């Protein structure tokens, strides 16, 4: 079993988004669990590694092993760790469905197994969570965060933005992914074997409203809509055309220029306790 096609690919516009992420803005639910500076953490689907390196910097006596299926982004992650001077971290090409191929990963081997914006891109998120549970030691935690596209919102009202959202969700579903998975992470954790009483749930948001925030977020999506692997997925699916994507890119640029523009990304979070 593999993780399957990644809807966004690794275009520069995608990696800019991923590289903005930190522990503070992307896994606030995990912060209360980082008081022990000797933790052993596995970061699944780490991308360019900014969250992973931030985690490692917070546990100087511990260690982080971060995996991602893309050799390209693993090389970028290693460079980021080197630039930050963080040495208690190791990045390896790896897939959660074939974790046995990665040296240093073993069952019950980690105090924390973490995945950020990963399950939404998998055709079988339940199996992935079951594998992550196997890798969490007794007494450890599994921490997962994913957005819910169906809950995203924007202002002012704009038909083009609604078109973007409808198209994105349809294309994701066409490759058997769930773009709205953030709202049911707790349910997947229950199916994976965690009792409901051992699962904490929370919600947090990214908000893009200031001129700089709008320029960054809207610029990413305008570029992603016409230049990343997402464009190819749209065209392959037959659910949209190049003209649709050009229109959507223009809509993002219009949103960027709106002084009263506002965009919210809603994220569901779970911390599941692997009780002894």
UniProtKB/TrEMBL annotation:
<keyword id="KW-0808">Transferase</keyword>
<keyword id="KW-0489">Methyltransferase</keyword>
<dbReference type="InterPro" id="IPR025714">
    <property type="entry name" value="Methyltranfer_dom"/>
</dbReference>
<dbReference type="Pfam" id="PF13847">
    <property type="entry name" value="Methyltransf_31"/>
</dbReference>
<dbReference type="InterPro" id="IPR029063">
    <property type="entry name" value="SAM-dependent_MTases_sf"/>
</dbReference>
<dbReference type="GO" id="GO:0032259">
    <property type="term" value="P:methylation"/>
</dbReference>
<protein>
    <submittedName>
        <fullName>Methyltransferase UbiE</fullName>
    </submittedName>
</protein>
<dbReference type="GO" id="GO:0008168">
    <property type="term" value="F:methyltransferase activity"/>
</dbReference>
<feature type="domain" description="Methyltransferase">
    <location>
        <begin position="37"/>
        <end position="181"/>
    </location>
</feature>
């Amino acid at each position: 079993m593999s993780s399957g096609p990644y809807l966004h690919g690794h275009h520069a516009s995608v990696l800019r988004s991923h590289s903005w992420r930190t522990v503070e803005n992307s896994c606030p639910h995990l912060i209360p669990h980082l008081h022990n500076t000797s933790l052993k953490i596995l970061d699944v689907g780490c991308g360019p590694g900014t969250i992973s390196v931030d985690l490692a910097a917070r546990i100087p006596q511990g260690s982080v092993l971060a995996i991602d299926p893309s050799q390209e982004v693993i090389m970028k992650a290693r460079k980021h760790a080197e630039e930050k001077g963080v040495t208690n971290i190791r990045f390896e090409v790896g897939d959660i469905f074939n974790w046995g191929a990665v040296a240093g990963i073993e069952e019950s081997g980690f105090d924390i197994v973490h995945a950020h914006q990963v399950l939404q891109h998998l055709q079988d998120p339940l199996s992935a969570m079951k594998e992550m549970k196997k890798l969490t030691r007794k007494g450890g935690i599994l921490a997962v965060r994913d957005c819910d596209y169906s809950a995203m919102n924007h202002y002012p009202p704009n038909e083009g933005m609604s078109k973007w959202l409808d198209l994105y969700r349809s294309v994701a579903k066409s490759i058997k992914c769930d773009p709205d998975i953030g709202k049911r992470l707790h349910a997947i954790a229950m199916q994976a074997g965690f009792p409901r009483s051992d699962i904490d749930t929370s919600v947090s948001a990214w908000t893009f409203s200031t001129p700089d925030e709008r320029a960054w977020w809207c610029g990413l999506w305008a570029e992603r809509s016409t230049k990343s692997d997402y464009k190819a997925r749209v065209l392959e699916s037959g659910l949209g055309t190049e003209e649709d994507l050009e229109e959507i890119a223009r809509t993002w640029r219009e949103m960027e220029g709106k002084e009263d523009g506002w965009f919210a990304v809603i994220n569901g979070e779970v911390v599941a306790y692997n009780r002894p």
